[in-house]
Amino acid sequence: MNTIPSRTAAPGTPTLRPTLHLDRLGSVIAGLIGLALFLSPFVTYRANRIVSGEGRLLVDALPPAGALGTIVVVLGVALCAVLARRPLIRLAAASMGLGVIFPAVGFSAGFVTPAGNTFARVSPAIGFWLLALAFALIAADALTRLRFGPWGRLVALGIAAGGLALLLLSGAWNDLSLMKEYANRAESFWREARQHLWLAFGSMAAACLVGLPLGLAGHRIPALRNAILQGLGVVQTIPSIALFGILIAPLGYLAANVPLAAALGIRGIGAAPAFIALFLYSLLPVVANTMAGLGQVPADVIEAARGMGLSRRQRLFQVELPLALPVILAGIRIVLVQNLGLATIAALIGGGGLGTFVFQGIGQSAIDLVLLGALPTVALSFAAAIILDAIIDLTQRGAHD
Amino acid sequence: MIEIEHLSKRYGDNIVVDDVSFTVGEGEIAVVVGTSGAGKSTLLRMINRLVTPNEGRVLIDGQDTATIPEDELRHRIGYVIQGYGLFPHRTVAENIATVPRLLGWDRRRIAARVEELLDLFQLDPGEFAQKFPHQLSGGQQQRVGVARALAAKPALLLMDEPFGSLDPVIRGKAQDDLLAIQRRLGTTIVLVTHDMNEAFHLGDRIAVMDGARLLQYATPADLLTHPAEPFVEQLVGTAERPFRLLSLVTVQDAMEPGHAEGEPIIVSATLRDALAQLIWHGRQDLPVADASGTLIGRISVDGILKRGRSLA
Ligand SMILES: Nc1ncnc2c1ncn2[C@@H]1O[C@H](COP(=O)(O)OP(=O)(O)O)[C@@H](O)[C@H]1O
Ligand SMILES: [Mg+2]
């Protein structure tokens, strides 16, 4: 298995000349890059939006000079992945690779599309995605090894977001099918994006508003604890579609019989049941983590606080909650990442959100429309996870260095 | 002065503290000693009302503590527990400032007090004020715990096994430091321990508890010479008794006039230390010096033995 020369020679077998260091993960990734570069299509060309397309290798997808330049850079990154040891160099190489193939796929779209043809569609193909995956893996591995602090990770996220914004705003991707789908429905894209965020963040906020006091009650009153956790555990096991179904009847009844509810836009289908379902799914992580966080506050700390004359309220806000905060935030992180994904399902019952494009796209067999809904969802979840992880680290004051 | 009058505590049918009464004078250290489960902690926690007594009352300077609101009472009484319970999310300075902040002291006064206490406990403010508890050694955490309890200048300090998690070497030094600080500030202390040596080292008076009852409350010498019950005698340890006695009396009390050869012993040393010196140097007698180094007499093995017998 161990065929790669390793840095440390076995005892008793002195190495006479320095062995070349080959990175094991890097070698696998380099193989992936080679496969992607020479054997997989870089873009897919289709005569129109829904017919199946034909793949183009990178050499055919760009003008000769551009193709050569891209291949040189990509091979350079692969070489770095195999040979370079310093994580910072590996990160720089991966970033450069991403910085080249993302604009390249945009230019490729313009190059492959016949002049004046407005029906033709060009999308990134498996080769592009494999390259992006390979570079992302190198970058993620390097970032892990660099052990950035919370601020470092936020800055890295900011740089990535800035690069993406630059790419999209510069128009470099405008010839890609994905951006054509966007251009055709820019207005509804932003409306659904707002709705998506509102569903995810709103239900999270509601879950915090209800879940924090519920968790506190469960912590203080042991008899309540199991009842609360079991009740919420049952909710968690209901599949989302089934939960929507369960909610249709009572909400429909409410809308029909309570004028105020109808006035607020509550109906059996639409945003209301989606919001309520997300809210219910969010409760368990918030409540359970609040209980766990409060439960792990050391007993002698509470005893000392009581002995010094901190009132119940002062103990809660100055000692118990600050010490439980990292665990509570970990629960909120779970909820936010989960909700940003789950909110996609809301579109199924007319609740809106980015899922609208996913399901429209599936209906029309238009994969780029699916991506228009799916990619921003993934990016949002990813960013939310990184931001909340950083906040959790920042709140762990005095816990470690 | 604190007066403990007929305190009792029951949990269900289980009597944990049974009709305990004693008085601690101003500026005295009373040590409550006994085996685990004797009810020591419960007794201590009834003084600051972390535990509500079923019967009896506690008077501080004549005032019944039941008439003072709980939190206000605790602001006036320092409290140190075995694990210290330092707030892990707060710096050393913030920890020490806890009660002054609750009392609404202004920031300058708090800062000055924190610095004063860090100095008193030999913790350099520049180095330690901004550290977090987990960055401190056990001995440093202990000092911060005591400093925090003393921050608002309480007249009474309650300590529940405050040296219990220190290793023996640091423990002795920490006990000496506490004694020095207590003598300087004049704070009244009630301290709980299961360590008899600690009780004799620190206590002006010792309360021996067993099975929820107070068996005897007396000075260390009385406890040795007139144990009230066999259990007290057993706890004190018959074999150790003569040495404990000698450690309660200073050279002053057994000094004889005259001269002796050798390294002088200071007059304030205990007879136990003097005997150790005599044995170590293989001498029958040694000169005695006062604090300024002037020779003022001699101390002899015979003199110490005579003195040790007459006490018993
Ligand atoms: N809150 C409580 N509920 C029931 N029993 C208790 C409680 N607190 C203490 N006890 C019991 O009271 C007895 C004395 O406890 P404690 O005062 O802590 O003893 P010590 O400090 O001398 O070891 C023990 O047997 C203990 O189990
Ligand atoms: Mg105890």
UniProtKB/TrEMBL annotation, chain A:
Membrane topology: Multi-pass membrane protein
PROSITE patterns attached to this UniProt entry: ABC_TM1 (PS50928)
Gene Ontology CC annotations of this record: plasma membrane
Occurrences of domain ABC transmembrane type-1 (ranges): 193-388
InterPro entries reported in the protein's UniProt record: ABC_transp_perm/SBD, MetI-like, MetI-like_sf
Keywords: Membrane, Transmembrane, Transmembrane helix, Transport
Pfam family, one: BPD_transp_1
GO biological process terms, semicolon-separated: glycine betaine transport; transmembrane transport
CDD domains: TM_PBP2
Protein's cellular compartments: Cell membrane
Bilayer-spanning residue ranges: 25-45, 65-84, 91-113, 125-143, 155-176, 196-216, 228-254, 260-284, 316-336, 342-362, 369-392
The family this protein is said to belong to: Belongs to the binding-protein-dependent transport system permease family.
Record's protein name: Osmoprotectant transport system permease protein
Organism taxonomic ancestry: Bacteria, Pseudomonadati, Pseudomonadota, Alphaproteobacteria, Hyphomicrobiales
From TrEMBL, chain B:
Gene3D superfamilies found in the cross-reference section: P-loop containing nucleotide triphosphate hydrolases
Protein name, entry field: Osmoprotectant transport system ATP-binding protein
Keyword field contains Nucleotide-binding: yes
Source organism of the structure: Microvirga lupini
One example GO MF annotation: ATP hydrolysis activity
Domain ABC transporter: 2-236
PROSITE patterns in the record: ABC_TRANSPORTER_1, ABC_TRANSPORTER_2
InterPro entries assigned: AAA+_ATPase, ABC_transporter-like_ATP-bd, ABC_transporter-like_CS, CBS_dom_sf, P-loop_NTPase
